[in-house]
């Protein structure tokens, strides 16, 4: 398994080549096929991370940006794509949500992307804004709503 997530009902979500949900009553996995592969071709099939937000929406990161799905039916929800911003070819490695509901995404080479669902817009945070490196691979938002972002460079 590449990543795991747990929804508000206790359901377990698994990221592999596809998205899997563990049906605890039947003790079986329900498979949701990778729609990136069907939509964009074999080269875009790699999903990199999985995150479940406070609204119980499932976010999946990839090299072309985020996808968002309603739980439990897995209907895709609208979110602006990476093609609307200059991030082509930079996968999302991790996601977290702050107290205001913004989704923070670490990327391979383009710093942090912060998605604001209210305005449906992204804000990019880079080295020029204070990051030690534009290669960010994890994020933790603590009880004070401070973002802790390890990078591939230290001082």
- Uncertain runs: none
Bin the strand percentage: 35-45%
Estimate percent helicity.
under 10%
Provide mean pLDDT, rounded. 83
Radius of gyration: 15 Å
- The total of helices stands at 1
The main β sheet shows up as: 4 strands, antiparallel
The helix/strand order is EEEEHEEEEEEEEEE
Instruction: Count the beta strands.
Output: 14
What structural class do you assign from the helix and strand content? Answer: mainly beta
CA-CA gap between termini:
34 Å
Backbone shape: globular
As laid out across the biggest beta sheet, the strand order is 1-2-3-4
Helix-strand blueprint:
Elements: E1 3-6, E2 12-15, E3 19-23, E4 28-32, H1 35-40, E5 47-52, E6 57-62, E7 65-70, E8 76-77, E9 92-97, E10 103-107, E11 112-116, E12 121-125, E13 140-141, E14 147-148
Antiparallel strand pairs: 1-2, 2-3, 3-4, 5-6, 6-7, 7-8, 9-10, 10-11, 11-12, 13-14
Account of the 3D structure:
- The chain is mostly beta strands and 155 residues long.
- It has a 4-stranded antiparallel sheet with strand order 1-2-3-4, with no helix packed on it. A 4-stranded antiparallel sheet has the order 5-6-7-8, with no helix packed on it. A 4-stranded antiparallel sheet has the order 9-10-11-12, with no helix packed on it.
- The chain is globular.
- It starts with a strand and ends in a 7-residue tail after the last strand.
Short description:
Helix content is 4%, strand content 41%. By secondary structure, the protein is mainly β.
Question: Which structural traits does this protein have?
Answer:
155 residues, mainly beta, four-stranded antiparallel β-sheet, 1 helix, globular
